[in-house]
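pinging the channel bc i need a second pair of eyes. not urgent but kinda urgent?? the chain im working w is below, pasted from the shared doc
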Amino acid sequence: MSSDVKLDRRSRDNGRVTISDLSQALSLTKGTVSRALNGYPDIAETTRVRVIRAANAMGYRPLSHAQAIKTGRSCSLGLVIQLSEHDAHRPFLAEFLAGLTQAASKEGWTLTVATAENDADTLRIMRDLVVHQKADGFILPRVLWDDPRIASLTRENTPFICYGRPKDSREMSYFDVEGEVAMAEAVSYLAGLGHRRIAYIGSAEYYAFSHMRRDGYKAGIDAMGLGFDPDLMQEGALSPEQASAATRRLLALGTPPTAIICATDSLARGVYDVANELGLAIGADLSVVGYDGSPEASAMWPRLASFAVDTRKAGATLGEMFIARIRDPNAPVAQHLIRAEFRPGGSTGHPKLTPEQLVHALAQRRATQNI
């Protein structure tokens, strides 16, 4: 606890800590303490931090209903998770929530989480949370290229921060990971190992990240002088099963790839399944790179080479950005980009076979399997 906090134990013994208790402990007026807790811009940052730390140390908790009436704010970040998503956000949700909660708690805010069944349900729930002062605005995870949440919140003048870069995001606040840079680096890495036929399996085009990662792959192919071949790009995969189908199409080409980059680790699992079925050795006969750095990647054998994202840090940064936006609505648009970290694995290596030799090997194995 800070040495400038003179904690009166009698206050805590007799019930909840009040603004009066904080005022007395910090030798500040109640008005200054209240304005610091509610993020008013006329309070110096050093004073605000001092008050917030003292409030956390003394266990101060505002009466949320009274605070909402007084300030017009609930001091709560809203997050609506749509269960109809193909994976219900499972790969990143736990760490993301931990980061958001950390950012909210640090500033004396709360996190309001709700679930929805579909797009219409999501918009209705967001509207209700604002009307009933349960949330001051929203963090929008897994942003869509044309996102109905953005259109609705903009129309209703409700604050939001995007996790991702949708179409026309130049005047929009967002936090994102540069997936396009990661995909270009993946191409460069594989080309450096000697691969010349490098394929890409992408996710659904309605996700904003799909556009970024696809464009990064194409930029990487151009930068390495490999010549873009549209047959090597398979998009629209949302599950390992769909990625398996895409892998079969790629390996059936007259000149198949010796390496495959996947937009997510989950899609890479589908590549592994087909390789195992056909008797191809991952890392030798076929190199694979994923994206997410998920626990799933670590559990695959051989370990999947992947670009890892610090999802907890993403949640914390988004929370900080949102609270700053609420405290200063006139602040300029905030846009924060970070890089994913490449984690090598046994799923990549120098190509053991040329594309022509791979065609021959696959033909032999299919003939053997049909006997």
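so The CA atoms of residues 278 and 362 lie 7 Å apart. and Residues 1-14 have pLDDT under 50 and may be disordered. — does that match what u expected or am i reading it wrong
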